[in-house]
Write a structure and sequence with these properties.
With 419 residues, this protein is of the alpha/beta class. It has 17 helices and 14 strands. It folds into three domains: 164 residues, Winged helix-like DNA-binding domain superfamily/Winged helix DNA-binding domain (Arc Repressor Mutant, subunit A, Orthogonal Bundle); 111 residues, D-Maltodextrin-Binding Protein, domain 2 (3-Layer(aba) Sandwich), CATH 3.40.190; 94 residues, Periplasmic binding protein-like II (D-Maltodextrin-Binding Protein, domain 2), CATH 3.40.190.
Length: 419
């Protein structure tokens, strides 16, 4: 679930030594033995494979990489306390300093349990995801609920799931932990090693080929960076983006974005086109009318998609409208349905380019589409600062081979026929 999520107990010990510049004084401040504090620091240093402190006779002082970890850890606990304060404000008597005290007691397992239940929708699925017994995750989650003094879970037909309060808390904690991974990436870069994760969301139809092309080129140049891909509808990916489960969404932009905490960057125009199989009766024809198009069965875009709007505009004044017996969000199923019949649909220029890579079974039908701006782009969180690795991946999206091909194709007016 997390690429770098060290023990919060170890991070608290690390910060205490940072502030007091002494393991012995930190042990007194934390009410722990010196050996416990020493072991906590040693565990962090082992996880990061580097020295965090220079030990001298007068104390322990941060190294350069130690300073990197401290900066991220400071932000981690500030954000955690804010998230807990917001959650605990729902109590009848929140109590002064309750959020700060709770931030010192919350554990990694409690955070992982809450996020897993939020993402999975039930205690049972969360336990399977984490790899523990259901009673274990149930006890951990209920202990967090008891310590916070607020209700976090409600009963549903599928069992217990997070309520709205817990959903917001889980999202904030998930984003907080994801941002901590930046410390690991920067420390690895300091050691002239490239490590880290790219978490990218790809829309089910729009942008699949565009994204695959960028990932392929990026992975060749940066083989030690893991790329995790989530594919889903826009609404699902938007929630994942805002919660920190993914770093960006690649696909057709909404323009303007549907939420005020995300921003869009346009990468290239991606006009809509009418598509059918090679050798279709309308393939290679000119002066095609909407009535001609309506003579064939159409595979419908999903509800509330931009392609659905284009379809409706296309046949707004056509009687009778075409037969539409199939609706799908799956690009693979869509391409097969088109290749094996005379069915038609609305796609984009980038998707016909993807078809070329997969065997070149489709043709662009020569029909002037209704005017509707369409652009492929990347959506990110507002005020998000990408790490060096994330910034490099964005550059591959901006200047990758598929971007260049799409820009050249659109500049040339697109290709007729087989594309």
């Amino acid at each position: 679930m997390f690429g770098f999520f060290p023990s919060l107990r170890c991070l608290r010990a690390f910060l205490a030594v940072c502030q007091l510049e002494s393991i012995s004084q930190a042990s007194v401040d934390l009410n722990l033995s010196q050996s416990a504090v020493t072991q906590a620091i040693a565990r962090l240093e082992q996880d990061l494979d580097c020295q965090l402190f220079e030990r001298r006779s007068k104390g322990s002082y941060l190294t350069e990489v130690g300073n990197i970890l401290k900066n991220y850890t400071d932000v981690l606990f500030v954000n955690m306390e804010e998230a807990l304060r917001e959650c605990m404000s729902a109590r009848a008597d929140p109590g002064a300093g309750a959020a700060r005290r709770m931030s010192r007691r919350i554990t990694n397992s409690q955070i992982i349990a809450l996020i897993s239940i939020k993402d999975s929708g039930s205690f049972l699925q969360a336990a399977r995801r984490v790899g523990v017994a259901q009673p274990t995750i149930h006890r951990t989650a209920r202990a967090l609920e008891c310590n916070l003094g607020v209700q976090l879970f409600s009963n549903t037909a599928r069992g217990s799931a997070v309520n709205e309060l817990a959903y917001r808390l889980a999202n904030r904690l998930q984003l907080m932990v994801r941002e901590l991974e930046g410390a690991y990436e920067r420390i690895e870069a300091q050691k002239l090693r490239e490590r880290g994760r790219i978490l990218v969301g790809g829309l089910l139809l729009a942008g699949s080929g565009f994204l695959a092309s960028a990932i392929s080129a990026f992975s060749i140049a940066h083989p030690d960076v893991n790329v995790d891909i989530a594919t889903a509808s826009y609404d699902v990916l938007l929630e994942k983006l805002r919660a920190g489960s993914i770093d960006f969404i690649v696909g057709m932009v909404k323009s303007p974005p549907p939420a005020d905490d995300v921003v869009e960057e346009i990468l290239a125009p991606d006009p809509y086109i009418v598509v059918a199989r090679k050798g279709h009766p309308l393939d290679g024809k000119y002066d095609i009318s909407s009535a001609d198009l309506a003579c064939y069965e159409w595979v419908m875009p999903g509800q509330l998609t931009a392609r659905r709007t284009v379809f409706e505009q296309l046949f707004a004044n056509t009687t009778p409208a075409p037969h539409t017996g199939i609706e799908t969000y799956s690009l693979t199923i869509l391409l097969l349905l088109l290749a094996e019949s005379d069915r038609m649909t609305v796609l984009t220029e980038s998707q016909i380019l993807l078809d070329q890579s997969l065997g070149h079974n489709l043709s662009k039908i020569d029909y002037k589409m209704p005017p509707l701006d369409a652009h492929i782009g990347v959506t990110t969180r507002k005020y998000w600062t990408p790490s060096e690795i994330q910034g490099t991946f964005l550059d591959f999206l901006r200047h990758g081979p598929m971007t260049d091909r799409l820009l050249a194709r659109v500049a040339g007016g697109g290709a007729r026929g087989s594309g």
